[in-house]
Amino acid sequence: MASQSSKTPPPRVSRWNEAASEADVDVIITLKPESVFHASGFNQIITSDPPGVIAPANRKPILLVNVTRLLTAGEKSFLPDIRGYGRSYNEPSFASDLFGGILKVMTELGLKSGKIGIEYDSLTVKHYFRLGEILPNATFVDVTSKVYGFRLIEDPDEIANVPIAAESATAGLTAMPLQGIRVLETGATPAARLAGVLLADQGADIFSLDHGRLSNGGLDDYLDRGKLLLPAAVLSSVEGIDIIIAGSEPSARSVESQISLSFPAVAPGEVEFDLPPDASDDLLNALVGFYTDLGVTSKLLGRSVTYTPLPLCTVYAAVLGVVASMAALTDRERCGVGRDIVIPRLAAGLSAVGVLALDLEGVEPYLLPPGLLTLPPELMVEVPKARSDESHMIWLVNRLNPTAGCYRSADGRLLTPVTTVNRRLAIRMFELLGLYKHVKEMGIVDASPYDPASELVADRNIALPQGMRNDLNIKLAALMEKAFSTKSAVEWEELFAEAQVPCAIVQDFPEWMRSSWARESGLVEEIAGLDRPQLGRSASVQSAQPYPPLQPGRRLAAATTTSSKVQHPSGASGASGAASAGLKPLVGYVVVDLANVIAGPACGRLLAELGATVYKIDTTRPDHQPLVTIIWAGDVGQGKQSILVDLRTPAGREVLERLVATADIVVINATDSGTERLGLSRAQLAKINPRAIGIQVSAFKGERPSGHDDRPGYDPLLQAATGIMSRFGTKDMPLLHGIASCVDYLTGYLGAFAALVGLQARERRGDQKGDWTETSLARGAALVQFPFQAGPGAATAHGPRAIGPSATARLHQLTDGWVFAEATDDLSEAMRGLTVKEATEFLRERDALVVPVLTIAALKQRYMDKPSETVRFRRTKCGGLETTALEPTWFRFNGQNLAPVAAAVPPGSAYTEVLLSLGFTSAEIQTMLTEKIIGQPNWRHLAENKDTDMQ
Which Pfam family, an example, fits this chain (predicted)? Predict the structure, then answer.
């Protein structure tokens, strides 16, 4: 709770008392890092959480530090009175947070109504208002010049510690990457408020309109987190705004350097969709294909249409909005000009279905993936029983693809291993289960699917589990069920983790939020003053670690609701009119993308869409099957220059290091041990390129270290672990909720957000120092479920037969299709026997909102040749491939969609131009090709590979 220093205070400690007297104040409160160092000692560690010094006129100063830093502060500081605030498992605390500590000290000193000196020039807006709230009767006086003056007198220890003081003070001032960025949140829509939370979590000052919401432990507590809630009259007087977050209608910028952000339902000028600007996610989800194309296994239940309660369009829009804002903020440092950014929420939803909307022609036949979920006659007869018996449904799904099934452990819990797309992981899984010998005896082989000869064994190739013969799948599922039943779920999970094979216990969302690893890692946080835990930060920046505790929203106290108060201190905006902003804000920046599957590559593709030059590096010997590396790359490989490199060779390492040396951002999806093996851990990256921003996309990591950090994973695994599969199915019959749309793409976009938060901080500092940023599949899976922090929602909105949140907002099956409608009354009986067209007219006559339920195929058919403002597809021919893909409409800058990036080409196609640009000669390139240090497009060099087993 408190610590005593035995050091002899230097003369300047008494000068703090003198300064208070000379300034005619009762006490000085300083939160400025340099001033804290000056008053307390040159101790770097106490700046890792906000420290403070309270210097009364008539006694020695008091140091406030986080309780976890108390021991170190006592060893290093020369102040005799040190108090610890915050939470600690083994140390009692003086107060719950820094400002609670300040209030207790001021009460103890009898100065709650006194004259308080503060340093206006360095005090953040958030801290200024917080002081006003806890000390409403105090008078605040600016003592910046007085403190600066007496600090010019240097004591001997100051001179000796100048380097460390300067370095630590600078770090303290820039610890939060968005510190000093002022955001005006006028929109009340969920997308606007969620965008504000994401920015507040990184240190931005968020001024939000106070709608008088009561703090009731519900969702408002989360959406108000870290914000200053102001009455409309006060909000309008806030100055120095950098970013304006509006709702469904755009907000005009008052100065050219500002950035405005809005989230309408559809693109401005859209005539195809009759929707209000604030249309609900339920209506938009119906139009995007989320009710039809995400039910990969639920179709076995006879449901072609299933409602999803996930607010996918809102969450994707919020994340895309903050990505665009960070890109614009970065570019503002070059041009001094802001941008008007519009993120149509329907388009944001489309950004989540790229691989589902993709058609790719021109790929060699042996590289095409086998079909998914074909039901043989011997299993077809089991469907009726599966539809009435949850355990039999699991039994049936396991036999369609055993490597991605759900299995009962000895203690009755369900586990999900996910090894379908990676042959190395599939082999390890069977070895762990003690089944690999049986697998080989069944005639199953391990053959590279990049070798045309593998077509001969395609129906018994462990590298293509979804193409396995039905009789083999049935036998494998039975063997796996028996093996998993021999140990508890926790035992299996730990064994798989130790072997680096993805496997997780199936949980529902409340169970996951209570789990020890979610709490330990900071994926779930306790918030001081609130009863319910909340989701933690969705991204993190290493230079801000350890982050300060998350804070609830604060209402401006009555005593401080004056415009003059709101205007102190003024925020910094970019220089107005310094240059003309190009449409794409990241032009000139370089990204090196070493990621695979979908999440990491989606991060790189998004940065390319914003104008960055993106180089894509893949291995010459992939364990992932062509579905991942070639087919899905038709979407996430757009806008990239691709090269295949053997990084295990010295020459391959040289290619990597030359390329990384050019980068502003380096994208990696790997565990911590994986980044080490790749040679691109944080320390290794800093050595190769000290100005680069690394973005690590992992599976289970949160803001803080945990025992799950080094566990691998894929989208379906995190769906199982965090409750998405239980929400779409049930806890005893978890069902996959789409391929990539729930977790993968969102995580990739969070990665782009994290990287750009780090990049804009580098550019605003002007020091060209790099950083390390992180997000994870677990963070993405949590964020997409953010509404359920407040409760599970209606029973009709969950499960494999979900129809909607209420009787008046629900799906309706009609004679020729489905609609989703929001009405004032339940009109389902009145619509029996109607067609979609008839029901639509009937509902609109009654002022109901209604949309047809569309599949992605229907969208493609409607808008391929007649694009709308919001839904557009494009056909391209490039590198021998003919691709049909969504055309991005999710970023609108200054009234225009960003121009589409170059279409994807076969992976590895750009090796000549990339290597020449790095200074390699044509002869050196040919040598690397001959020695297979550089791979041929589509991994054609593996056609000669002899490292395969096709016996």
Answer: CoA_transf_3
Q: CB-based contacts of 714: which residues, under 8 Å, 6+ apart?
A: 418, 421, 502, 597, 699, 777
Mark the ranges of the chain whose per-residue pLDDT is less than 50.
Answer: 1, 3-6, 44-48, 89, 159, 162-174, 558-578, 947
Which class is domain 2-173? alpha beta
The fold of the 377-514 domain, in CATH, is: formyl-coa transferase, domain 3 (3.30.1540)
Q: In what order do the strands lie in the sheet with 590-593?
A: 540-541, 771-776, 693-698, 665-668, 590-593, 613-619, 640-645
Alpha-carbon gap, residue 398 to 860, rounded angstroms = 32
| Token representation of residue 104 | 């207790």
- Alpha carbon 299 to its chain centroid, in Å, reads 30
State residue 776 phi and psi, 5-degree precision: -155, 165
Tokens of 815: 């004679």
User: pLDDT value at position 577?
Assistant: 41
Cβ proximity of 449 and 625 under 8 Å: yes
Under a CB-based contact definition with an 8 Å cutoff, are residues 489 and 505 in contact?
yes
| Contact between residue 528 and residue 97 where contact means Cβ atoms under 8 Å apart | yes
Quote the tokens at residue 444.
């199953």
Closest CA to 205 of 528, 538, 554, 524: 554
Q: How far is CA 514 from CA 23, 43, 314, 518, 534, in A?
A: 51, 36, 25, 7, 11
Residue 156 confidence (pLDDT): 56
Domain locations in the chain?
A: 2-173, 377-514, 806-863
Residue 828 DSSP code: T
Task: Give the DSSP letter of residue 186.
Answer: -
CA angle 534, 539, 542 (to 5 degrees): 120
Inter-residue contact 693 to 665 (CB < 8 Å)? yes
pTM of the model: 0.85
Phi, psi of 257 (to 5 degrees): -80, -10
Q: Dump pLDDT digits (tens) for 90-130.
A: 567 788 888 989 999 999 999 999 999 998 766 777 788 78
